[in-house]
Amino acid sequence: MQHKGSTDARHDDSVTVLRSLVAITRRGLVDARSGEPRLSITDQSIVMAIADEPGIRSTDIARMFRLNRSTVSRQLSALIALGLVQETTSPAGRGRPLTLTPAGEDAFRHTLDTLQGVIDTHLAQWSDAEVARFAHDLQRFDRGDAAS
Hints:
Blueprint: H1 4-31, H2 41-52, H3 58-65, H4 69-81, E1 85-87, E2 98-100, H5 102-123, H6 128-143
Antiparallel strand pairs: 1-2
Helix pairs in contact: 1-5, 2-5, 3-4
């Protein structure tokens, strides 16, 4: 049985984890807006989703980010107009699979490089063992593993 004090401390630590993850992500994505074209955080997220899953459809993106399909449609229209995303034909004839154009790939790489720079800066003073442990723990957290 956990004592009330340790439950409160665990909750406080959990809140710190959440706030830190949000802050790091937001700062990194805002820093990535320095390139051209200047993409919003939503634009960057959609570009990253397409890069991770070429052929994804707008309905999948809407579900992934819990957005209204019309919102995703508007965002995709803008990304297509910028020449970053293109619709392809589906062999099954259902929906319009999405892929990145070469310019979209460049924007994606710029975002990743910027985010990697933020992470590298934050980890610069950490030992190799600390970075390895942190990477392991984040992977475990992301997968939802009970133990590793």
